[in-house]
Design goal:
Layout (H helix, E strand, L loop, with lengths): L2 H6 L8 E7 L5 H14 L3 E5 L10 H12 L4 H12 L6 E4 L2 H7 L1 H11 L3 E3 L9 H9 L3 E2 L1 E3 L7 H6 L5 E4 L15 H11 L4 E4 L5 H8 L4 E4 L1 H10 L4 H14 L2
Parallel strand pairs: 1-2, 1-9, 2-3, 3-4, 4-5, 6-7, 7-8, 8-9
Length: 260
């Protein structure tokens, strides 16, 4: 069983998986490490790490601003690899990068995935990677034992089963149209999407985009295998900076409890 599969494994009292996201290097690489460990202590089952990028097209204002803060503080791809290495000295929690094609291309595809394996990255989310063009990327990642996480959007109706059948790690189901950001209400018929995915694959399904309250997490985790929260976590880091640790712990603990 891979580390990502283990994050979704059903154990008595564990509930559904809680996945937290942060932008690496916001406010510093060292503090990002501390925040990851704090979220793990609070019950997070898997952590998504955003590689700072100047044009994160899938992100709303909260995460865009986190990218700007991290880049301004000197964060780059090599320093994000250093972050993973620091976390791996203290934790075996599954780690998944969220990045875009340009940073991977600039680094060099083979070199990038070799480095991912060397430091201990388990998976990759690439929002601007078209499904039809994922062949080379998927093969390079597979050679290093790294899952490319498939994204399924509300508009993917006819493509859901096709994408789901090729999925590895987990399926990232986008809850709402548009970019990331906290939403007061999620109107998408997630049950229908989840049912379609589960008909096509045994790969676990996690829902992200917009989720930020325990009530939302509780409702979504009834059908989904996991809940993903990004902007609400990044907002806490924006508000408290280096002192965000205890606030992250409290928030993640509350959200994880809602997933049980």
């Amino acid at each position: 069983m891979s580390k990502i599969q283990r994050a979704f494994a059903h154990k008595e009292g564990k509930g559904k998986a809680f996945i937290g996201f942060l932008t690496a290097g916001d406010p510093t690489i060292e503090q990002s490490k501390d925040f990851i460990l704090e979220m793990e202590r609070a019950g997070a089952d898997l952590i998504e790490i955003g590689i700072p990028f100047s044009d994160p097209i899938a992100e709303g204002p909260v995460i865009q601003e986190a990218n700007i803060r991290a880049l301004s503080a000197g964060a780059n791809t090599d320093k994000v690899f250093d972050l993973v290495a620091l976390v791996r000295k203290e934790s075996d929690i599954p780690l998944v990068f969220l990045t875009y094609l340009n940073p991977i291309f600039s680094y060099g595809y083979e070199k990038f995935f070799e480095k991912c394996k060397a430091v201990g990255v388990d998976g990759m989310i690439i929002p601007d990677l078209p499904f039809e063009e994922r062949g080379e990327m998927t093969e390079l990642a597979k050679q290093q034992g790294i899952d490319i996480i498939s994204l399924i959007a509300p508009t993917s109706e006819e493509r859901i089963k096709m994408i789901a059948k090729e999925s590895t790690g987990f399926v990232y189901i986008v809850s709402s149209m548009g970019v990331t950001g906290m939403r007061s209400e999620i109107k998408t018929d997630l049950t229908a999407i989840l049912n379609a995915v589960k008909e096509a694959t045994d790969t676990p399904c996690a829902v992200g985009f917009g989720i930020n309250t325990p009530d939302q997490a509780k409702a979504i985790s009834k059908d989904a295998d996991g809940v993903i929260v990004g902007s609400a976590i990044v907002k806490i880091i924006e508000k408290y900076g280096a002192d965000a640790g205890p606030h992250l712990y409290h928030y993640v603990r509350e959200m994880k409890e809602a997933c049980k």
